[in-house]
Amino acid sequence: MTDEAVGMVGQGLLLAVSVLTAGHVLLHKRSARPAAMWVALCLLLPGLGALLYWMFGYNRVSTRADALRARWPSVVEALGEGARAPQELSALPERLRDHAEIGARITGRSMRGGHSLRLLRNAAEAYPPMLEAIRAAQKRIYLSTYIFDRDADGLAFVEALGDAVARGVEVKVLVDGLGEWYSPRRIGGPLREAGVPVERFLPAKLFPPSLHVNLRYHRKLLVVDGVRGFTGGMNIGSRHRVEGGKGVRDLQFEVTGPVVEDMELQFLEDWCFQTGEEPRALLPPESLLPPRLPATSGDGDAWVRAVSSGPNEDLESVRWILLGALSRARRRICIMTPYFIAEAGLVAALNSAALRGVQVEMVLPEHNNLIYMNWAANAQLWQILSFGVRVYRQPGAFDHTKLALIDDQYGLIGSSNLDPRSLRLNFEFNLEVCGGEFLGDLAKHYADARAASREITHEELMARPLWVRLRDATASLFSPYL
Length: 482
Hints:
Helix content: 40-55%
Distance between the termini: 47 Å
Number of domains: 3
CATH architecture of the largest domain: 2-Layer Sandwich
Shape: globular
CATH class of the largest domain: Alpha Beta
Largest sheet: 15 strands, mixed
Structural class: alpha/beta
């Protein structure tokens, strides 16, 4: 066979692979814009486009999650019966029952009472009680985070975790495989030196190929002895020390009550997913399983439900819960998010609420740690400003807070941003909260942030120079993967 013939055969194979890959994209990609991008790459760059798709665009996570669930021990599933049982909502005010029922249909989990929550601002308020809980632990500590910086605050956690290991407490730490690179020097070395078992979630590997750069572990969980939990949007590191307008503002939440067992089981599922450990061997009831809690145990007055989301069986859970909550709003919607990329369903829900007379407000940071996120947001904000949604920019230190507050009686808090990455690609963990004094604290925090912010208008956006609008519009083209 001549060289020319070999070349033609090679080109034909590349084209065939590209066409077959494009067909796979069309069958399996749920969102039209990413699907169109991958099809274009496959057909315009024969061979290379297909390679990029199978390395970066194909979701293998669901397959691994299915395999884990097949091995998940029945005793652990039984522990979740309290969360999955039919809801008894008679103690919940009638106006909140719709919220509770919507979330139950989406997640399969009940909203349970008897919770206490405490709002913790920035490192100064969050890290001391987290460290105190670690130092007081008697049985087990499970910690997961997206970023774990190797700095003064990060090493303080390493020391506390190492001391816990030394006194016989079981400790497990899970850090995102990409997020660990945010620190110039990775934290894994000090943790292992302290005897702390640590795993990286979906780390990038060439052999075997594993480059899930778009599927990030964004959950933040600290669970101590199965009864005390911390979650929210805050990573671990001195970046969350805010002084003189510098640093990263954020919220963390201390939680006690039945939902803590859901937090612990979520961590254990994530650990087994990454390590491949046999759950039955990992979870002997006498040492690791959380104590069984009644559905309304605890002295708190808040009703809470755990909401997990990710590119597996929980795909888009947060998105659907948020859309359901917005549809039930009657007076006021308050949202804080560091990143807002206009997703069509969310835009429609916000505009629909504004058109029926609900006061809809959103606070975004004036300055972003990812400048292109502000560019993309500015290109799309007109879609909600045109219908009466009010948008504010908060000056000073970058605010990484994520919260949604509906009629001051329902809150959604946790790790999810309002962008396609959080709503579709990332592994996230959130809490739905109904009633209780905690929501008053959340409302005050929002009010303080709004009072310090500057409202932006549709006219202001349209008055931007042409080159700025072109730059922002270009950034918005990449919004599915920002």
